[in-house]
Amino acid sequence: MRGWHPGDVPAVLAAFAVPDMARQAARPIDTPEAALEWMGFWGFRDDAQAFAVTVNGEVVGNVAVSNIDAHDTGWVSYWTSPHARGRGVATAAAAALAEWAFRERGLFRLELGHRLDNPASCAVAVRAGFAAEGIERAKLRYGDERHDVERHARLATD
C-alpha cells in the first residue's frame, strides 16, 4: 500500500472503465481530470485515507477507510483491477489497512458492506477478518435497481 500519485491516472482510468466499477462511481471517471479529482478527493480529508494497492510496483487496486467518526469507527472499501482478482490481493490489502487503521489512526471498529450478489467481496471480507453482522435490505441503489447489503465488521480486539 502507498499513497496515490498523479502518475497513477492510467491505472485509475483502466479500473473505472470496467462496467462493474463504473457503476459504483458517484460520477464517471473517464478522463485524466476525473481520475485526478478522484485521487484528490481522498487526499484532502481528515475522516478518510486511501492507498493505492500495488503488486511488483504495478497499481492493481485501492483500499480505503472513510467516514471515521467520534466513536473511533471507520468504513472500509476496496477494489482491484480485473487482472488482479482472485489472487488474494484485496484480502491482503484489507487486512493491512485494518492493522494500519487500528495502529496509526487509533480506530476500534471497522465496518464494510457488499452487495449480496458479490460473493467475491464477501470472501475478501471474511478472509481479512471481518465478521458478518447482518443484512441491510435495499441499502444501495444503482440506477433503478436496489441491492441488499451484508454488513461485516472487525474490531481492534479481534
Q: How are the secondary structure elements laid out?
A:
Blueprint: H1 9-16, H2 19-22, H3 32-43, E1 49-55, E2 58-66, E3 73-80, H4 89-104, E4 109-115, H5 119-127, E5 131-142, E6 145-155
Parallel strand pairs: 3-4
Antiparallel strand pairs: 1-2, 2-3, 4-6, 5-6
Helix pairs in contact: 4-5
Protein name: N-acetyltransferase domain-containing protein
Pfam family, one: Acetyltransf_3
InterPro entries: Acyl_CoA_acyltransferase, GNAT_dom, Ribosomal_N-acetyltransferase
Offer a concise description of the structure.
This protein is of the alpha+beta class and 158 residues long. The protein has helices spanning 9-16, 19-22, 32-43, 89-104, 119-127; strands at residues 49-55, 58-66, 73-80, 109-115, 131-142, 145-155. Helices cover 31% and strands 34% of the residues.
